[in-house]
Design brief:
Layout (H helix, E strand, L loop, with lengths): L45 H8 L16 E4 H7 L3 E3 L1 H7 L9 E4 L8 E3 L3 E2 L1 H10 L2 E2 L1
Parallel strand pairs: 1-3, 2-4, 3-5, 4-6
């Protein structure tokens, strides 16, 4: 007699397969017939469903369509540009902005030692004072 020839004392009972893929039996907690017991029963507009999936964005309205300007500090100009005229082309060559950037604003963070002539760019009051104090111009 070998191991595979042994017979069990108890009869093997087949389980009844009911309510597969759910929890606890026949209807899997969905109740009986009806629209809500079927698969995909949620009836909601696609937009509302998207908003509910992203809860942090609820209530945000009237988002500005205008992009904020790219900020360039005076100390960056001091480091990367040798002085003279500053405009879009000079800033692109110096690597301080991309060609695709639309708006630029120069802020007065840091110290300035070289004199610049700023042309066609937005500039803060503080930056303007610092540039003019060193002998530069804002056009």
């Amino acid at each position: 007699m070998q191991l595979h020839e042994l017979k069990s004392q108890f009869k093997k009972k087949n389980k009844k397969r009911v309510g597969r893929g759910g929890k606890r039996g026949t209807t899997s907690g969905k109740g009986q017939k009806g629209q809500k017991s079927r698969s995909g029963h949620r009836i909601k507009p696609a937009e509302r469903e998207m908003i509910q999936r992203l809860p942090k964005l609820r209530g945000l309205k009237n988002k500005s369509l205008q992009k904020k300007p790219i900020i360039i500090k005076i100390e960056d100009l001091n480091k990367k540009i040798e002085g003279g005229i500053i405009n879009r082309e000079v800033l692109i060559k110096a690597g301080l902005m991309k060609k695709s950037d639309k708006k630029i604003k120069i802020l007065g963070n840091g110290e300035i030692k070289k004199s610049f002539q700023v042309e066609g760019l937005k500039i803060s009051e503080n930056a303007k004072k610092k540039i003019e104090a060193v002998g530069g111009k804002v056009v």
